[in-house]
Design a protein that fits this description.
2 domains; 8-stranded mixed sheet; 4-stranded mixed sheet
Length: 385
């Protein structure tokens, strides 16, 4: 038994909008993705036997991409811990609440708890995004000479006819000459535009000519530019909410407690994590001298009764996924609350801690890929050659 069965895979196309993440990992062909599946299978085999069925079910969950990436995050953490020489018990009963944290860890006689949480950036207005099957329909329009960009003006209550939309786009694109469009652009003529309307739907498209060397590929995706999107949350709020959710879950543990946040974002910033945990940095003038301070809006300085002192540290990795496992360095953010127990530090972790309102950082003593047993440039090759 394994997570992914070895078989002949032939579909090497990128992920489709309506395709579940688990189905993509199972379907995608190519040496790059064979490496990913092999490592996931191997790491899964390192779990205790009683934990494997549940982890496999989550990795293959077709109804929740969050469940898939949360499971991958926990699989990565487990491998990192055992690769660092730790003994790890999964969902062992500790604490005063009767709940079981993800990992009870023993290293060199020291015991500590690691609790994992996956935190992903969310779209601000899902209503602006057309249904994934419709995106896939547009993307599959034969368009060997042009990329498409599209804008949404109105969305209907019922799904429109994909066939009529694709036929209309294909007919319009076939009437265009890419070399003529390029020549027109040089004379400041706007790109060709097509508006599609049906019932209460209204979408507009622009045709962007492909360069001559990139034309006539029958497998090429049509969409080249997606509509701009906004986001519901900022990074600091997302990290702060994740730590708050897990920080008080297990009561008094009597040992160091680390919350491990898989920080999935398009543009992750260390400043977001710093603000979430230590409060926003401010500069004010005291007796004529600029002084750096912190607002009391961080996890460890938001109250004065040490309610958050149970968390010894927060471990973050930006955008953890198979293609970044061997590249992105984990960072342990030490608690600034004097009531917290000291957090242990593994060799592959960078560290950050607050000192006089400034954050001091230290690099790891061991590369993360060595702990994971992977080459630095793993997976080797191109994902989509």
């Amino acid at each position: 038994m394994a997570v992914y069965v070895s078989r002949n895979r032939t579909d090497a196309s990128p992920k489709r909008a309506a395709e579940p993440d688990s189905e993509f990992f199972e379907r995608i062909a190519g040496p790059f993705w064979d490496q990913v599946r092999d490592v996931i299978n191997e790491w899964w085999s390192h779990l205790p036997a009683q934990s494997r069925p549940g982890m496999r079910s989550r990795l293959l969950d077709r109804n929740s991409g969050t469940n898939v990436f949360s499971a991958l995050w926990e699989l990565y953490l487990h491998e990192m811990l055992i690769g660092s020489g730790c003994k790890v018990a999964i969902e062992h009963s500790v604490g005063t609440t009767g709940k079981n944290p993800d990992f009870l860890v023993i290293r060199e006689g020291e015991r500590f708890v690691v609790e994992a949480i996956w935190s992903a950036q969310r779209l601000a207005d899902m209503g602006e995004q057309i249904p994934p099957p419709l995106i896939d329909a547009i993307d599959n329009v034969p368009s060997p000479n042009f990329f498409l960009s599209y804008s949404v003006h109105a969305m209907g209550a019922a799904a429109p006819s994909q066939k009529r939309l694709k036929n209309g786009l294909a007919q319009w694109l076939s009437s265009l000459d890419p070399d003529q469009v390029i020549a027109d652009c040089e004379r400041k003529v706007p790109l060709p535009r097509h508006t599609w309307q049906e019932a209460d739907w209204s979408l507009s498209f622009e045709a962007i000519p492909r360069s001559p060397g990139k034309r006539d590929d029958p497998a090429a995706r049509a969409i080249g530019v997606y509509p701009s999107i906004s986001w519901l949350d900022v990074g600091s709020d997302r990290v702060l909410d994740a730590v708050k959710k897990k920080g008080g879950r297990y009561g008094d543990l009597g040992m160091p407690f680390i919350v491990a946040v898989g920080h999935a974002a398009f543009f992750p910033e260390n400043r977001d994590v710093e603000t979430a945990l230590y409060g926003a940095s401010v500069e004010y003038v005291h007796t004529g001298t600029p002084v750096v301070g912190r607002l009391s809006n961080g996890y460890w300085n938001s109250t004065y009764d040490h309610a958050h002192g149970k968390v010894s540290g927060v471990l973050t990795v930006d955008n953890p996924a198979p293609w970044t496992w061997a590249k992105n360095t984990p960072v342990l953010w030490h608690s600034s609350d004097p009531a917290s127990l000291p957090a242990p530090v593994l060799p592959s972790w960078a560290t950050a801690q607050l000192a006089d309102a400034q954050v001091e950082r230290h690099m790891p003593t061991c590369p993360i890929q060595d702990v994971l047993g992977l080459p630095q440039l793993w997976p080797v090759g191109d994902a989509f050659p």
